[in-house]
Specification:
394 residues; alpha/beta; Aconitase, domain 3; five-stranded parallel sheet; four-stranded parallel sheet; 14 helices; 40% helix; binds FE3-S4 cluster
């Protein structure tokens, strides 16, 4: 790998131990993937923030970096943590977990990282431009960044994103290069899709077919496929098939499809079957979880509209970024949802919080990604459906 003089000094330890350790990670990655050099990145998003995910070993790793004087060089923010720092007691998060989670968040803050924990940074003003290079980690944010914004990022791991944040660059391989961004699976959508759950079902269908081909979609309507729906689609494909980039004809900034792309169609039968496959419960849910990826203001408004003046039959969380929650507070949506018995929770989500330890075993969602991960990572029975179906009101 070709390093600049300054990068070599960083690797040799002349800029401190934390920088040297980070450079070693980046150089090792670059060598594995055959990168010619490094590319500067304008922001980083760190995954591995929930204490549930990283445990004691992760906390020790972060504390060690803090001791070594690690500081980030570029705007850096976090993926959702295991709880809402302000509302963890209302969420019924165990106190010993909360104590550890706060230590993790404090370690990140000590490195100069923005304490906002969200997988939808693009809803709070962090929107890299077409062609801009970043180092983001959370899979749905990576998909949105590459596909909807047309910026460029690999699907970073927690340590590699943190290393990029500390050094200000990342190895130049994968989705940073034109060659990796071509789509080789063409999906002909032959059924009108209306809701997040429809787009999530499309994503759950395409993810396993895509393998290492990037999918491209024909037949999506520009009017319906707004940013909320595109994030639902990308998240479901990332969860079911590790898809990090897709194109949608006439909608995404890139339309880069191979002439030899494999073709597949998605019609009413596939939609019904995919929606059905995401439900595994035969009992009523204990928790309704909306906001995977983190809800936009419009999605919070939709929930508020559904529950206004009523009571929800089960516990209800709407997961979002802190900044989006503040807007929902101002608009009065949070108060409406709380009056109905629900919660708008910030900085966390149903997949990274200790759901089982909190006593939940059956959860409903309108997210294709949450549908997959609630079953596999949180051992939940899942009810999948549209907001109007899954939010049962009295
Ligand atoms: Fe975001 Fe959690 Fe879903 S990180 S994409 S809300 S699993």
């Amino acid at each position: 790998m070709k390093l600049t003089g300054e990068q070599q000094k960083m690797l040799d330890g002349e800029r401190g131990e934390a920088v040297q350790q980070s450079m070693e990670i980046l150089v090792a990655l670059g060598k594995i993937y055959g990168a010619a050099g490094m590319v500067p990145v304008s922001s980083a998003q760190i995954a591995g923030v929930s204490y549930k995910t990283i445990g004691e070993a992760g906390l020790e790793y972060l504390s060690d970096l803090v001791k070594k004087g690690a500081k980030v060089k570029i705007p850096t923010f976090l993926n959702p943590a295991g709880m809402d720092r302000e509302q963890w007691e209302k969420m019924r998060v165990p106190a010993d977990f909360a104590k550890k989670q706060i230590l993790v968040l404090d370690a990140f803050a000590a490195m100069g990282i923005n304490p906002t924990c969200t997988c939808t940074p693009y809803f709070i003003g962090i929107r890299p431009k077409v062609g801009e290079h970043v180092a983001w980690a959370e899979s749905s944010a990576v998909s949105f960044c590459n596909s909807v914004l047309g910026a460029r990022t690999n699907r970073e791991g927690g340590p590699s994103a943190l290393a990029a944040a500390i050094c200000g660059f990342t190895p130049d391989y994968g989705y940073h290069l034109d060659a990796k961004r071509e789509c080789r699976l063409l999906v002909d959508v032959r059924v009108p899709l209306k809701t997040n759950a429809d787009f999530g079902a499309l994503g759950a269908f395409v993810g396993p077919l895509a393998k290492n081909k990037n999918p491209a979609f024909e037949g999506l309507s520009k009017e319906t496929a707004n940013e909320d729906k595109l994030k639902a689609l990308g998240a479901a494909m990332a969860a079911s098939g590790s898809v990090a980039l897709y194109n949608a004809k006439g909608i995404t900034p890139e339309w880069n499809v191979s002439g030899e792309a494999e073709r597949v169609s998605f019609g009413p039968e596939e939609l019904a079957a995919s929606r059905k496959s995401l439900t595994s419960a035969d009992s009523p849910p204990q928790l309704i979880a909306i906001g995977c990826p983190h809800a936009s203001l419009a999605e919070i408004e939709e929930v508020a509209h559904r529950v206004k003046g009523k009571k929800v039959a089960h516990q209800l969380w709407v997961c979002t970024a802190k900044e989006t929650k503040q807007k929902a507070d101002k608009a009065g949506y949070t108060a409406i949802i709380e009056a109905a018995g629900g919660l708008v929770v910030a900085d966390t989500c149903m997949v990274v919080c200790p759901l089982k330890e909190m006593g939940f075993s059956c959860t409903s969602t309108n997210s294709g990604k949450a549908g997959k991960y609630l079953a596999s990572m949180q051992q939940q029975k899942v009810v999948y459906g549209d907001v109007d179906d899954i939010i049962v009101v009295k």
